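Side project, low priority. Logging it here so it doesn't get lost.
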Amino acid sequence: MNLFLELRKHGKLAAKRNPMYEKSKFGKFWIYFMGVFWAGYLIFFGTTFAYAFAGEAIESYQVLNSGLIFVLAIDFMARFPFQKLPTQEVKPYILLPVKRDRLIDFLLVRSGLNGFNAIWLFFFVPFAIISITKFYGIAGVLTYCIGIWLIMIFNNYWFLLCRTLMGERLWWVSLPIAVYGGIAAGLFIPDKSPLFDYSIDLGEFLIKGNIIAFVGILVAIAVMWIINRTIMKGLVYDEINKVEDTKVKHVSEYKFLDRYGEVGEYMRLELKLLLRNKVCKQALRTVILVVVGFSLVLSFTDVYDGKGMKNFIVVYNFVIFGILFLSSLMSYEGNYIDGLMSRKESIYNLLRAKYTLYSIAILLPFILMIPAIATGKLALLTCISWAIFSIGCVYFCLFQLAVYNNKTVDLNAKMTGRRNIGGGLQNLIAGATFGVPLLLNIILNSTVGQFATSWTLIIIGSVFILSSNFWLKNVYYRFMKRRYKNMEGFRDSRQ
């Protein structure tokens, strides 16, 4: 216990002593603000559902318990953008006389006690107070909420297992797909699926404080704990010891880029950065899977046939690539910024190469949405307009971050790398590049119609594309004015 408390204290001190601590206050304020917002959101839905389900043939808490698996699936998906692997604190203790298992145990304990696992209680507590108290009293509410919390801890370790395996090999994405696909088949293929009854019974056992149910959940948590500890221990030490550094299966030179001179050289550098480094490859795989998933669901199902969801998916698919990679513009280069700064105007050519490469990359979401166009779900002009608007206006906004980003992002430390929180301006611009286009689309569609909206977006995007040389030079000149401040930040945040 003393070791756990000491490591927890070290973690807090490390965060406060980080050179980026003072620069990330806006980011932390934004995180707290969104936490309060979502807590209020869940309280509202918990209260609403308690009254909405009251008119059913069965009690409202039984209706909710029958769908617990859907809550767990939503929780699993929601963890991807917000929860990172809990292995960042291993590296400083490698040379100390501390057992590996105890270090990993501490990280897993901290992950299990993370407040994210309790966020759903803001939904379940008001729901339980309204729907369960009249039958089982406060004791029933208490045991039910404790049971839900334990189930969320199990879901946390299940997520960590999938996220760890998917980070190492892309084909591990088939594990959660197979699990949730099998559950969905068991729920919806039979006329009267027993899984709904099992879920209702589990909820009843939790409300009544059934010891066997609680022991079963604790055993499941222990099994997930052991599996995670075994896998993480091996992967963390492989990463720290650079076990995979010498394993090069294939070397691509991208010879076709030679004709474009120095800009082509930097395009080659960007391609190698994206396709060879662990962090970049994982981000690229994740965003491609999400875009493919959204596109397939939109094209071949009726789930997102509503106008609002169609607009959301179109904007998301075209904007997400830019937000994911350009919001950290120059942060990857922070690992070798000293070499880039040794040549005159190399940064300008680097910016041109990035703009060209990511403009070409917009073809990927466009191609993926061709089935939706063919099935009549989307108009061809709509997709063309958003592709042009993204390359022009959205990329213009994101490229401004090259001037202000000054925190290095480690290229290969997936398991042990610290996550640097961006400053206020970075978070504001990255958020606005998705929120503002979505809001603009809603306003224009409601006032001038879809056809006029598409041509408006094409005109706005074309203006920024045609003037790209001018604003890229402006970004370059402003970056050079701040170069010493930025280089100091890059050096301070390297691992």
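Brief comment: Residues 133-168 form the longest helix (36 residues).
Revisit when time allows.
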